Amino acid sequence: MWLLWTLAACLCLGSSAAIQKHAVAARLPALSFRTLAREWRRVLRALLTSWVWLLGLVVQLPATVFMILAVADGEISVIQPLVNANVLVAMLAGVVFLRERLSALEWTGAGVLLSGAGMVTAAAIASPGGPAAAPDVAAVGWVSLAFCLPAIALALLSRRLRARPEPVLAVAAGLWFGLSTVWLKVLTVRLEAETGPFLDSAVAVALDWPLWAVGAANVLGFVQFQMAFSHGRVAVVSPLTTIAAVIPPVVGGMAALGEPATPARIAGIAVIAVGTALLFARPRPADRGMLAP
Known about the structure:
Shape: globular
Distance between the termini: 37 Å
Number of strands: 0
């Protein structure tokens, strides 16, 4: 079932990205941390009064549920790379509905990405891992530190960039989203290990650090993702965010959760990374001629 949940999450995430890009680009100026700190009320009001942005948010909610189901049932080193396919949905939506134009190289990247997704799926089906191992607490800590520090550094760097901060913001958002997947897997494994009365288990989970870490990472990623959208195209922001989001789960799954690192899986993940990179190889200026929602 993990594959079905992953595909459903891809469809919802890609659709949500394109819808929210339309709303952010049409209703808001280019956002920075300084702008958010100074005009957060106006920004929040603009988003909450945009039916297009709210529609994107509604579409994103089932994606969260599908992602939780996929992570609980599968391996994050496989699931997160496959979620990369959501960029294809966002790209097609950008072309069809937002009138964005893609180069031949970008279309080639889409084909390579799709091929890599097929390779990873085939490899996962051919050599499925066993039940999720108990997380190596020390390894999870090191993986978390290894990606939290770059994400924070990129966020600080974006404040100093006057021109085109969207690549930096998009990568930072991706790292936070990837870390949230790692911590979500830790949470589901610990939840499955809980025994005893339901109320006691529920309290234990509510007080467990992975739950709060998942929430914090998703909030940070969401804010920086929206900021990146306010500066650049879907076809630029989505690929960068998505490829950055792959790295923490792949490293964390194999280093801290005992997921198999077979050559076929690694090759498929590498092909996905190449395909996603090709989508960003020749970015064009942001298209701002969109209809206001």
